Amino acid sequence: MNSINRQNSKAKDSPVYVVDGCRTPFLTTKRGANQFSAADLAVAAGRPLLLRQPFSADAIDEVILGCVIPAAEEVNIARVASLRLGCDIKTPAWTVQRNCASGMQALDTAVRNIQGGHAGMILAGGVEAMSRAPLQWRPKLVEWLGGWLKARSVKAKLQSLARLSLKDLRPVITLLKGLTDPSTGLSMGQTAEELAYEFAINRQAMDQYALASQQRLAQAQKEDFFAEEITPLFSPDGTVIKTDQGLHPGSNIEKLSRLKPVFDRPTGMVTAGNSAQITDGACWLLLADEATVERLNLEPLGKITPASWAGLNPAQMGLGPVHAIDSLLKEYKTPFESVDYWEINEAFAAQVIACTEAMDNQDYCKHELDGRQKPLGRIAPDRLNVDGGAISIGHPVSASGARIVLHLLHLLKRTKTQRGVAAICIGGGQGGAMLAEAA
After folding, report:
1. Active site residue ranges
2. At 205, which CATH number?
3. In total, how many domains does the chain have?
4. Contact predicate 280/68, CB 8 Å
5. Which residues fall within 8 angstroms of residue 103, CB to CB, at 6 or more apart?
6. Is residue 396 part of a domain?
7. Domain carrying residue 424
8. What is the pLDDT of residues 198-220, one digit of tens each?
9. Would residue 197 count as lying in a domain?
10. For residues 102-135, b (16+ Cβ closer than 10 Å) or e, as one string?
11. pLDDT tens digits for 327-346?
12. Predicted TM-score (pTM) above 0.90
C-alpha cells in the first residue's frame, strides 16, 4: 500500500470553505441512453447553483470537473460546461479522471490550488452520463474498414466484403470494459466477491445492507432531507424529475434474495440488488478561501481538507477507503472516535461491509496499514450512510465522490455536528478520503 501525504504545513492549515453545492437527481438507466448528455447534466446542476449566489459567474477563478466517459462532442467537458454556465471566457477549465473518485479528485485539486494561492474561488465537481457510454467497433472490423476504404475497384471491394465476418459486427460495450480492471482481468463485481469470501460476508448480510440503503433513502426523501442539495431536472418533453430514481419502494428481503448473481454465476452472491446502480448525474461544489468568503460576505456550508489517496491490490479495490481513511486520520491527527458521520460510497454492499470489518480487524490493520498496532475502530451503523448510498441513490461514477462530500456537509449542518469523513473505493486498486467540518 502506498499513500500521498501533504507537504506544506502552512498551506495545509489554510481553511478552504464550501460556499454552496448542488446536484441533479440521479437517473437510473432503463433502456438505452437517457435524454441528458453529461454536459446537460453539469449545466443543469450548475446553473441554479450560480444563480442563487450574490456574485456573478465571472468571479470564479477556475472550473475543474471530473468525468470518466465524456462524449466525443464534449471533449474537455469542464470547458464546455463552464462556457454554457456563463463563466468568463478567460476562466480556465479542465477535466480530471480518477475512475470512481474523479469528483473527489476535482475537489482535492481545487482545495490544493486555493491553499497554494492560485485561486480564490473554484467551481469543482463531477458528472457522468453512464447510459450514454459509447459502443465500440472490434479491432478486426476497424482493420477490415481500413481495407475496404483502400479498395478501388469493384472486384477489390467484393473481395474485401467476402472477408467480413458477422461476429466482427458485434459492438464492444465500453461500459463493461471500463468496469473491468485490466491488470487483474476482474470486473468490479468480481472484486466484491473476493472481499465477501475474505471477510466471510454471506448473501443475507449483503441483501440486508442493500435493503437498509433503500429504506434510509426512502426516509430521507420523506423527510425532504435533500431539498437544499438537489435541483430538479426539466426534460424536453416537459417532465420534471425532482428525486433520485434508484429508490425501489417495494424492495424487501424476499425480492432481493431471489435475484441471481451477476458477476460469479451461478454460485456468487453479488447481485444487481446489492450493488450500485448504473446512473447518470452531476454534482458541483463552490470552494473559496477565507479572504473571498469575507470579501463577498458569504455564509459557507462548511470546510474540507485536501484528500488522502492510497493504493492497494486491484483485486481488493473495495478496501481502498480503509487505507485512505487511515492515512487521512493520521495526517490530520484526527481520532477515529471524533468523527460524527461517515459516508463510504456504496459500490457494493459486500465492499462497504468489508471496509467496516477491516477497520475493526486488528490483524488486517497491523499487516496492511503500515503496522498499525490497534484497529482503526468500529463505525456504528447509525453513523454510516444514514440517508442511503449508491445502492439506492445511484453511482454516476465521476459524480459520486463530489456527492458524498456535499451530502456529508448538509448532514453535519442538519444534525448540528462537527466532523465527518467521506471515502470512496476506486477501480484499479485505490482509495480516497476527505475530511469535512461544519462551518
Report:
1. 100, 395, 425
2. 3.40.47.10
3. 1
4. no
5. 66, 125, 126, 283, 398, 399, 400, 401, 402, 403
6. yes
7. 188-223+304-438
8. 999 999 999 999 999 999 999 99
9. yes
10. bbbbbbbbbbbbbbeeebbbbbbbbbbbbbbbee
11. 999 999 999 999 999 999 99
12. yes
